[in-house]
Specification:
disordered N terminus; alpha+beta; 17% strand; 21 helices
Length: 726
């Protein structure tokens, strides 16, 4: 059965061929799984698996120094007490399969240790696409995930592994730590069994945290790790979301010998999570989840858990899975071992380490990771441009920004510097300044706001119309109102109702809710490329912390000129000021305009830099877009490929809100080009995306964009009054 082309997952999701092959195997083995489920229902444990596998499983359990005393109370101190090959006591079988007497509180401690080594894979392909998956460290340097998550070294080269993307005990997000993948050191992939092993850099991006802080989940090719009927536990980042765990609800139902190398397990609660490790109740890794058998309608379309037609933007989490398939660890290791001799010495050494995991008795044992303690309160700051790090407990790494500095540009009033009361002394000991520790509160609030986005209406037309009518109730918008009067009255309205002046922080104010599209994704204004909101939020917070640390280092080193350059450039946000910041006039209102959400949009960083500060223009012969689809740029002219309607309404709002901030000159916005904005406005009508933005922005900062509420007003307003002198 072929898939509907519009019903396929995004980058990093399960490809059509992988899904089809997995579904075919699961379909063929359905009678076997049904028979297993009937035996489990009747507690017919003796016939669930072969005597050889059952005996290997019993031997492994008894070989675990922790589990052996419990097993001995049932079977005696030695395996021979079990009897012949097919003479297993029912009590032993029931306990092995149901795990009733082997689940002490140690189960949770082991699970927590296993989960620490599991990361979200942030995929960045060479052609600019993005996606996510799950992966686990399986040795000191190697990470295991699916081939369809990282199908090539080129994919891995631009991707990263993000650890601690999870909530803490207080239900607050932990600080995340990202490590760049290192395929040039090691990369091995196998499409048939859908797995990839890739090296990871030993120091984290921006923070320097050691990879060894996260331990690893070792792989063991010996038999007896799991038998048919036992639970499968799964730790995962479904659809790139916070780390989640499924315990005891996934029963191993089949270990087919034809074709060999697969595990089949089944549960209504199991979400698709590409690259997630599969564990037994001893938290030994037994397999690698890769795909499953989705429920379909009569037309062959994949269905969601609510029996709706699934679309690619929903992610694997929404699919109704009938059965699931994973590659067996023993098969993965067999394939890698067979290719080891053909590798160079460095890669061979990494494979040898992978194939010889640490053991306790007969059971593999993950390394115990020692958690470092926080450094002393007073830390010397070297005169360097590198970023300092402070390791804090087991929750991850907190970026320490010793100084918040506000530089006054163009007459802007300096802000008060806040301090925790702690200090930083420079390397010569002659400078003591306040140290401000960057807390995780804003990041936590941003991620929480995005999580809550799916729980509320994207755009409530009825409620918004009530708010709109109330907003304009004292403003005369009648057809007989003069164009100058209409400009002045609307300008006064959007100014007086702008009650909350937000700082420029897209990661906090724009990405989590305001700029979301109806599918709850972010899209680049000029290209239409899709971004995962939580990914962009994380990256923006990291960029901001790095920028502040670099700025601080430059100032401490006495590089004033370089510091101002850094400040003007700012962090590399994927955010576009439709009205460029260098068009703004100085004074206290500068920061208000900088953070005004009505003219801020998600935008590919390359397009943002490509457009720079160039005014908008409409080319007669636009032709092919350049710069990866951003638009056309020639000298002092830029025409975007997409988003012209939204752009025009944002600029016209700015003219109302900030009279005189934009000058009537070639480098900014000449009066003659106002007609271009009106043409774009009329050619691309207001969308629900813009209506959603307008309503959400009013909630955050108090004012609205009249051009979105009443598009027909555009031709009746004298926007020329908003332009300053040439």
């Amino acid at each position: 059965m072929s898939l509907n082309p519009s019903n396929l997952p995004p980058v990093g999701g399960i490809p059509e061929d992988v899904l089809s092959e997995s579904e075919s195997r699961l379909r063929q083995r359905k009678p076997t799984r049904d028979a297993t489920k009937e035996k489990l229902k009747n507690k017919d444990y003796r016939n669930l698996d072969t005597p050889i596998r059952m005996r290997a499983r019993a031997a492994r359990v008894m070989g675990d120094p922790v589990a052996a005393p419990e097993a001995a109370r049932i079977t005696g101190p030695v395996l021979e007490s079990i009897g012949g090959e097919d003479e297993f006591p029912s009590s032993l079988l029931e306990r092995i399969i149901n795990g009733e007497n082997f689940l002490g509180v140690r189960f949770f401690a082991l699970g927590q240790r296993a989960g620490r080594a599991i990361a979200r894979i942030d995929i960045r392909t060479p052609d600019g696409r993005s996606g996510s998956g799950t992966g686990s460290l399986v040795s000191n340097r190697l990470l295991l995930t699916n081939n369809h998550v990282l199908e090539s070294a080129d994919w891995a080269r631009g991707s990263s592994a993000v650890f601690d993307f999870e909530d803490d005990l207080e239900n607050k997000p932990r600080p995340t730590v990202a490590f760049q993948l290192d395929p040039d050191t090691f990369f091995f992939t196998n499409k048939t069994f859908d797995f990839t092993l890739v090296a990871v850099k030993t120091a984290a991006l921006h923070t320097g945290t050691s990879l060894s802080d996260y331990g690893f989940n070792p792989l063991d090719d010996s038999q007896g790790k799991v038998t048919i009927g036992e639970p499968i536990n799964i730790i995962q980042h479904p659809s790139g979301l916070l780390k989640q765990v499924v315990l005891q609800e996934n029963r191993l139902l089949d270990l087919p010998e034809d074709p060999p190398g697969w595990l089949h397990y089944e549960s209504d609660t199991m979400p698709g999570s590409s690259g997630a490790p599969l564990f037994n109740n001893r938290w030994e890794m037994v397999g690698l989840h890769h795909s499953g058998w989705p429920k379909r309608n009569e037309q062959g379309q994949i269905l969601t858990v609510n029996d709706q037609i699934w679309t690619r933007d929903m992610g694997e989490l929404a699919i109704k899975w009938i059965g699931n398939e994973g590659a067996r660890v023993s098969q993965i290791l067999q394939i890698v071992k067979a290719e080891q001799a053909a590798m160079d010495a460095g890669r061979q050494a990494l494979v040898t380490e992978l194939l010889t995991p640490p053991k306790t008795g007969t059971v593999v044992a993950p390394p115990v990771v020692e958690v470092s303690t926080p450094p002393a309160e007073r830390m010397p700051v070297e005169r360097t441009t590198t970023l300092g790090v402070q390791s804090v407990g087991s929750s991850g790494v907190t970026l320490t920004v010793p100084l918040h500095i506000t530089v006054s540009l163009g007459g802007a009033s300096p802000a008060t510097t806040s301090s925790t009361g702690r200090t930083v002394t420079d390397s010569d000991g002659d400078l003591t300044i306040p140290k401000v520790v960057a807390t995780d509160t804003e990041r936590a609030d941003s991620l929480r706001e995005f999580t809550e986005a799916s729980k509320k209406p994207y755009y409530d037309e009825t409620a918004d119309q009530t708010k709109r009518d109330d907003y304009y109730r004292n403003t005369d918008l009648g057809s007989n109102v003069n164009a100058d009067v209409l400009y002045n009255s609307l300008s006064k309205l959007v100014n007086s109702t702008h009650q909350t002046r937000l700082s420029y922080k897209p990661s906090r104010h724009l990405y989590p809710w305001v700029d979301l599209q109806p599918d709850l994704k972010l899209r680049s204004l000029y290209t239409g490329d899709i971004y995962e909101p939580q990914q962009l939020i994380e990256e923006s917070f990291m960029a901001e912390a790095r920028f502040e640390a670099l700025l601080e280092s430059a100032l401490l080193a006495g590089e004033a000129e370089g510091s101002l350059s850094l400040l003007e450039a700012g962090p590399l946000y994927n955010c576009e000021h439709v009205v460029p910041r260098n068009w703004f006039k100085g004074g206290p209102i500068f920061s208000t305009a900088e953070g005004d959400l009505h003219h801020l949009f998600t935008c590919d960083g390359k397009c943002n830099n490509f457009r720079a500060n160039v005014p908008f223009f409409d080319f007669v012969d636009f032709g092919e877009a350049v710069m990866q689809g951003c638009g056309r740029k020639e000298e002092n002219k830029f025409e975007p490929k997409n988003g012209k309607g939204a752009v025009s309404r944002a600029v016209m709002y700015f003219l109302l809100r900030y009279p005189g901030f934009i000058d009537d000159k070639p480098a900014e916005l000449q009066a003659a080009r106002l007609q271009t904005l009106l043409q774009w406005h009329q050619a691309e009508p207001v969308s629900d995306y813009e209506r959603h933005r307008n309503a959400a922005i009013q909630e955050k900062q108090g004012n609205r964009n009249p051009l979105i509420d009443f598009p027909d007003l555009a031709t009746r307003i004298n926007f020329g009054l908003g332009l300053g002198g040439a």
